[in-house]
Amino acid sequence: MNLLSAGLSGFALGGSLIVAIGAQNAFILRQGLLRRHVFVLCLICALSDATLIAAGVGGMGTIVSQSKTLILLVTIGGAIFLGSYAALAFKRALRPAAMVAEKTEGLSLKAAVLTCLAFTFLNPHVYLDTVLLVGSLSAGFEGRERFAYGAGAATASFVWFFGLGYGARLLAPIFARPAAWRVLDGLIGLVMSALALGLLWSAFSDF
């Protein structure tokens, strides 16, 4: 297999893993609609994915998979964070008129960055997808082809996050109405709640 084929294989895998309704994507979508700190947040998400993918391709996946305590702590922490954010989303859904004002106020850059980092690194699924899955599949490649495979997977993250963040503004006319924000925040709350419950179930299913 040549470098291009390896890179395309990595891009296809990375794209298939990241294009899903999740906490991180919902947050980027919402910030994109508000046009708040879009570039910085998209860059953080993409670089975080690229770093974790590089760790997986470099062999870190084996170490992480053997640390059950670390996985448990990250899972519980992620569930608590997602549950808290779900509560905030439901609260916003009950006060949709406040979203019009939030377009100019919103999260500060520091708060947005910290929230984005929490969504990224308190989600155990991101380690399963990037470090473990991409890392294990990259074992089928050697040398430069393995590097190309990882680079392809990382490129998919950049394309997705920047496309989502800046593409969200195309939906701005719809979200000029408070009712649309009510629906979006209600859906975000449901997604976050489901993810939090799923994490708790996976954390304690072995007990």
TrEMBL record:
The chain crosses the membrane at residues 6-27, 39-64, 70-90, 111-128, 148-171, 183-204. Its main location: membrane. One of its GO terms (cellular component) is plasma membrane. Keywords: Cell membrane, Membrane, Transmembrane, Transmembrane helix. GO terms for molecular function: amino acid transmembrane transporter activity. It is found in: Cell membrane. It comes from the Bacteria. It holds the Pfam family LysE. It is a multi-pass membrane protein. This is L-lysine exporter family protein LysE/ArgO.
